[in-house]
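Here is one chain, start to finish.
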Amino acid sequence: MLPENLGDYIRQLREQAEMPLRKLAALLDIDQSTLSKLERGERPIHRQMLPIIAKTFNVDEKELVIKFMSKQVAYQLAEEKYAKDILVAVEEEIKYQIKMKSK
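Its structure:
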């Protein structure tokens, strides 16, 4: 499983591949200081970066996306009194939307 912080995981992948910060930053089309902040968890990682990271380091994109999205949802619902009920409702809404798209 991925470390708690997705930025930590990205840094681990980069370091294991012995890839300089500047090279990954160039692939992601961001500057080195921004990548450094992403790795430290000081800046948010953008969803569109995940396929590039997965391909670059040959890791499962699905795992990255799940970690990323779960953090996003958890952040939004962290203080919400009805978080579990909202998640159930979201699951139902997703099923409905998938059903409507397949028609």
